[in-house]
Amino acid sequence: AQSVAQPEDQVNVAEGNPLTVKCTYSVSGNPYLFWYVQYPNRGLQFLLKYITGDNLVKGSYGFEAEFNKSQTSFHLKKPSALVSDSALYFCAVRLRMDSSYKLIFGSGTRLLVRP
Amino acid sequence: DGGITQSPKYLFRKEGQNVTLSCEQNLNHDAMYWYRQDPGQGLRLIYYSQIVNDFQKGDIAEGYSVSREKKESFPLTVTSAQKNPTAFYLCASSPVGIHEQYFGPGTRLTVT
Predict the structure, then answer these.
(1) Residue from B41, B101, B102, B109 to probe the interface with A (highest A Cβ count within 10 Å)
(2) Does residue B97 carry a pLDDT above 80?
(3) Across chain B, what does the average pLDDT equal?
(4) For chain A, how far is it from start to end, CA to CA, in angstroms?
(5) pLDDT at A102
(6) CB-count exposure of residue B22 (10 Å: 0-12, 13-18, 19+)
């Protein structure tokens, strides 16, 4: 089955330290991959996407993600975490549905950045 | 959240009542989507629509219905047939040729 996995329910990091939020996928063909962030009781905000090209993609708020085809991973990274980065992060992959597409989401990873 | 509005933010209903959640967008996007979010399960697709007067079932459509009479509006009705309706409901939209979706602020529905 085609799916997205986020193996960590929560990631804890100290402010100023680098952070990584992990995502692995299982889809056929070339994947289109996305990261979204959700603050409490809010909708999801788009952070970045990988479609093709350079394996390292840069997005909003200083986030970046590395696509690794051999490991089927798309980990989210940031060199220096901020307390304001604390939120729920979702990885997603785009799947074809007849004449359109849908997003399959991972279960989410809560990032907690302590001062 | 800009450009997509969902109302109300919080909604309370008694079991057995149908309830309609509003989703409006002023982004001129063709496609619109409804997701349900439950703790620890990520988002699951309920219904989606690519054009006006056309929509398709997603992964968990049972107990829900939608309409798409206008490009900017995609209301979701949670019927009494939905066995576990309490959840956070998110509406999203996307333009043709753009891969990512843009989300509204969500409606938290509580059914007792």
Answers:
(1) B101
(2) no
(3) 92
(4) 40
(5) 85
(6) middle
